[in-house]
Amino acid sequence: MTGGLPSTGPLLEVRNLRVGFDTRRGLVEAVRGVSFTVGRERVAIVGESGSGKSMTGRAILRLVRAPGHVAADRLAFRNTDLLALPERDMRALRGRRIAMVMQDPKYSLNPVMRIDRQLGEALRAHGRLSAREARARMIAMLEDVQIRDPERVLRAYPHELSGGMGQRVMIAMMLIPEPELLIADEPTSALDVTVQLEILRILDGLVRGRGMGLLFISHDLRLVSTFCDRVLVMYRGRIVEEIGAARLSEARHPYTQGLLACLPRIGGGHDMLPVLDRQPEWEEA
Q1: What domains lie within the chain, and their CATH numbers?
Q2: Could you report the per-residue pLDDT of 182-200, keeping only the tens digit for each?
């Protein structure tokens, strides 16, 4: 599933992005001077929990609320300054042009609403369709994410779906408006390995078929090395290394090397796995 996608320029430009939170003990910086671009390709952000991966994704969509605040030298989507957009215009852009799949569908789908109502709301928010057209669009979208019995799923409540099925519904909901950029925040972390591969194949096919950009947030280095085109490695709010996914094993930063060394290997013996020997200079990389 490797290989870049053709691009005529970056969809997303991020330069010196900073996310901070005012606390009683002073300013806490969750993201500190992050810079990168995303074109029509699959870019991964990896790192430990608390490294700032998810906060970066939320900041792009201006989903960081008080007491948090976001600043950047440039945060632009297709040359549109996201930080300068009025909130009304930002709401129109979310979902329609940039969509985000959250980590666990249990927290993203309304537990007391059937799937057809939730997909219907997503359709109404981004266009006017007749009831028949909306139904046909919902069925087609569920078929695109390889749901075999879309009529049954449309009548179901979220608790009646498996984790993998719920995640497919969530992906369908985010892709209904046909966005140009998809931010996927740990979309497979709550799934077993077999379902993970199915979801990744679906995402890969949709990204390639539609020519979308994908920002894939994950902690799984082994997964992103086979699925993505480029990898950004975050440590304590900073990007410490950027490398082609296929060359991840050649990473030079000691933090990235440490993460790779901590991965268990089949047939690797029964010795204790190494732990990261963190160095103060990593924070200033």
Answers
A1: 12-97+177-284 (3.40.50.300)
A2: 999 988 776 677 777 777 8
